[in-house]
Amino acid sequence: MAYSRVCDEVLSILAQPGLSDDNALHRARIHSATCPHCSAQLEDGVASDAPAFGPKAVSNSLRIVLVGVAALQLAIAVPWLLGRNPLGDLGDHVEVAHLTRDGALGLTTAIAGLLTAWRPRYAVPAVAVSCVALLAQFAMAFVDDHAHRVGLAFEGIHIVTVAIVALVAIHGKQSAVRPTAGPRRMRSIDS
Questions:
Q1: 170 contact partners, CB below 8 Å, separation of at least 6
Q2: Is the CB of residue 114 less than 8 Å from the CB of residue 97?
Q3: Distance from C-alpha of 123 to C-alpha of 175, rounded to nearest angstrom
Q4: Which residues, 6+ apart, have CB-to-CB distance to 30 below 8 Å?
Q5: Residue ranges of the alpha helices (H) in the chain?
Q6: Above 90 in pLDDT, residue 107?
Q7: Chain-wide mean pLDDT for the chain?
Q8: CA 187 to chain centroid
Q9: How far does Cα 74 stand from its chain's mean position?
Q10: What residues are paired with 150 via a beta bridge?
Q11: What is the pTM of this model?
Q12: What is the spatial distance between Cα 101 and Cα 80, in angstroms, rounded to a whole number?
């Protein structure tokens, strides 16, 4: 798409986002993402008056937090998978079978979190897998508590899994780009 009058309008809207309605701003962002001229102008800093704290900044901050929480889950889950408890006797006793199961489920959740941080488009399946893992941990906590294999005080560590599920869902929702209408293509009169 060549430079046009639309590009001038888009660049002026993006330069002063507070003066435009949300729909015009949304359309301008979609255009600038697909137009080589506008995206090059924005990279050169033409729209430098735009707020520094926007959806992209929030998304990057969320991504960093998600990586950190997923790395924490990974650091806890790998020893659990091997039957070791890096937390010591936090809260109560834990049998190796429970640790190993929690390690496998925690590893699954950590990988889902890291995958979503890397590619937000995988957020929906990652949330689904993480929710299944969380529900399995929740159900097995009561089964193992009833069989005296784990104390419920130990299960509080699964707040990390809850945090990953929430962050994956939030990051996926913020990263979803659903353009309502793409740029219009003009038909040639000659054809």
A1: 62
A2: no
A3: 9
A4: 179, 180, 181, 182, 183
A5: 5-15, 22-34, 36-43, 55-81, 96-118, 123-146, 159-175
A6: yes
A7: 79
A8: 39
A9: 17
A10: 94
A11: 0.64
A12: 8
Q: What is the CA radius of gyration of the chain?
A: 24
Identify which has the larger pLDDT, 16 or 151. Answer: 151
Q: Predicted confidence band at 70 (pLDDT cuts at 50, 70, 90)?
A: very high
- Please, is 29 exposed, middle or buried when counting C-beta atoms within 10 Å of its C-beta (0-12, 13-18, 19+)? buried
Separation between Cα atoms, residue 98 and residue 148, nearest integer Å: 11
DSSP code string of 123-154: HHHHHHHHHHHHHHHHHHHHHHHHTTSB-GGG
The token pair at 8 is: 């001038």
End-to-end CA distance of the chain: 19
- Check if the beta carbon of residue 137 is closer than 8 Å to that of residue 100: no
Distances (CA, A) of 63 to 45, 158, 189: 24, 20, 47
